[in-house]
Amino acid sequence: MIDLARVEEAGLNALQTPRQMFYDGWVLRLAPGKAKRARSVNAHFGSTLPVGAKIAHCERVYAARALPLLFRITPFVRPEALDTELAARGCDAHETTLVQTLPLDRAPDAPPPGDDLRIVEPAVDAFVDAAGELRGSSDAERAAHRERLADSPVDARRVLVLVEGKPVAAGLAASEGDVVGLFDIVTSPDARGRGHATAVMRWLLARAWERGARLAYLQVEAGNAAALRIYARQGFATAYTYHYRARPGECR
Asked: Which has the closest alpha carbon to 123: 141, 144, 146?
């Protein structure tokens, strides 16, 4: 049986940021940038203080840093009634995300090289620049991405797919023991539908298997139909979901 709480903790570790603090079991992540997981409250661990006082404290912390207050709501939040409490305070639910898993029962097949296609492992700076170019990320978003990857405490492998020397797809695997997470899977808009994202995933999973991974996970927005089709073909299936809660107009 898959230990989903461990998958959630591995996901938290994979997106570590130096701009975070603990508050009575809640992890307050305070990194600016596009990734909401890096700038939201993750109420994953034990909680003892009155929830109203904790929410008020979080409001002050995020306001002091000019960040919108976001709560990431998973099946593991503490206290369990946090989602209901936030809804009663007028916070809206946003961006349902699927956490999908894939047991690695055998060594995945690595993609064969092509005549004009290469898969390379770049350094952090080159990966961030390439992924940012593929996504259209701002300078601030790239800086936040670079900060997270440069300081990551987990075994992270980054890859780029190059066609005629130009990056057309990217991806990252974060391994922790026998669990590996796939992140930053992105393909250039003009190169989609050619199997590049699949090649990235297969390469990362094959390398992770060699380092002992036996369970893979990823996170994908529920409305991303194209990505869901790719992941389903690899055997990924939804294990649980999460969403964000924020005051009206503040989930950005």
From this structure: 146
| Same-domain check for residues 111 and 214 | yes
In this structure, are residues 160 and 127 in contact, taking their beta carbons and an 8 Å threshold?
yes
What is the rounded CA–CA span in Å between residue 229 and residue 235?
Answer: 10
Structural domain span for residue 52: 4-96+242-246
Identify the bridge partners of residue 94 per DSSP, sorted by sequence position: 244
Predicted TM-score of the model (pTM): 0.91
The pLDDT of residue 114 is 61
- Same domain for 167 and 185, yes or no, is yes
Nearest partner of 206 among 104, 119, 99, judged by Cα = 104
207 and 221 inside one domain: yes
Only one residue has tokens 């139909």, namely 225
Distance CA 17, CA 144 (A): 9
Q: What is the pLDDT of residues 145-178, one digit of tens each?
A: 888 888 778 888 999 999 888 899 999 999 999 9
CA angle 63, 46, 238 (to 5 degrees): 85
